Amino acid sequence: MDLFESRAVEKGLLQAVYLLETLRRLLVDGNTRMDMHGLCVCKTYLTVGLIERFGHAFGVAVKLLHSSTCQDRELVLRSLEEIFEILCFQKAFESPVVLCAAYIALLKNRPSLQETTKGTKRVRVDSCFGGMVSTLNSVGYDFVLQEMLATGLEDVEALAALGIALDNCPDGANLPLATLMIVEDISFTIAKLLFGLTRNILTTSSSEVFVAQLKLILKILQEKVTLLQFNSDSQPKAVSKWNLDHLIANLTVACSPACPHLQGSATPDDIFDSIGSVTLSLLQLYHRRLSSKYHLLVRLLQTILHLFILTTPLAPRPLRTTLSRPPPWLISPCTVPSAKLFSRILTMWADPPSTLWRSESKRQKMTSNVAKTGKAVSKHVPWFMMEYVALLAEYPELVIEQGVQKALAEGVYALFGVLGTYEREMCMAALDGSGRGIFKNLWEEWNKFGRFVEQ
User: Fold this and answer.
1) Can you tell me whether residue 311 is helix, strand or coil?
2) pLDDT digits (tens, 9 = 90+) for 428-442
3) Contact in structure between 428 and 439 (CB atoms under 8 Å)
4) Which helix or strand (DSSP H or E) is residue 257 part of?
5) Which pTM does this prediction carry?
């Protein structure tokens, strides 16, 4: 009988599961009774001839898990996890691609709900994978990220592995004394990954994958770029101007009828939370770069407005195809929590964080830059305001719920705060009679409740 025939492998794994656990503890942890009795010298000899057999058995057992003849999936998977840890400890994977394939195979076969003890084992396996990734050079690290990116196009588990790989950059990217060459290589690798994730959000049909991809984009914007910026005062190259343009454009498409239909368990609020969080981070961390891209940003904000619209049966067909433009995944309008997040986005656009507090003596310079930013924003605010008023004017065919309007009020008031006289007159001239009435009411409400008056 073939040594690696499926039934023989399954029988061997089921019988050897506790032996594998002991072997793993001896080789990896070094804390077993065998080690305490001075038998640690056998560590080298135990692995002679076993590593190759482990590799073959691993591949056969993964196929076995997908077959209907597997008698005890739980014990087979447990043995595979022990083998994976041993292979990681022995650095037995031939290439980063093989490492990724083995780890993704484990992820796909894990049960969704695990007990506490099994959760500990899962953390240990994840730690082994992260440790292996952290020892790669920049070329190997790029291979791992691109392999996970390709596999994660329709696979949430692969995106989870990609997140672990992001958290375990090669050591050179995290040490303050890293050479400039290492940082440049990692920056380029992260930039490639950001481009790929941004492209893939418009190619997936799974809502869970869509949300997971945007969470990884958020991780790159918030965390990895900060790590790669430690040795330079310049803007991080991992988020280039091209990446910003690409990201804003694809977020706009994701909120429009051109977005693919997303199926899955994620709700419209879950989907918008991922989109809104990325948009908010862009405004918080890259507002200086966005000062020349407000024409792209205002289009994104206009498109997001339509996520809060309820199109009633009273709406005629022309209105549905022209003014009401929901994306295919919008089963029902986004609710108040999403409106609060969007309000924060509008407030951040109107009043971005100041990065010029280098010295208290430069307060006048900071005030000048804030005024300059507000003036630049005010030139684009009318286009957003006219879209908002046009949607409100179509009541009762198009409805924005009162709770949502109340949640949006703070953001709208922030935009009124930077709206100049010329821009206000421009809005009044472009709107029709009912629109002018709504705009005037909003203006009066801002003067009464939202305007800041210095005492």
Assistant:
1) strand
2) 999 988 999 999 999
3) yes
4) none
5) 0.82
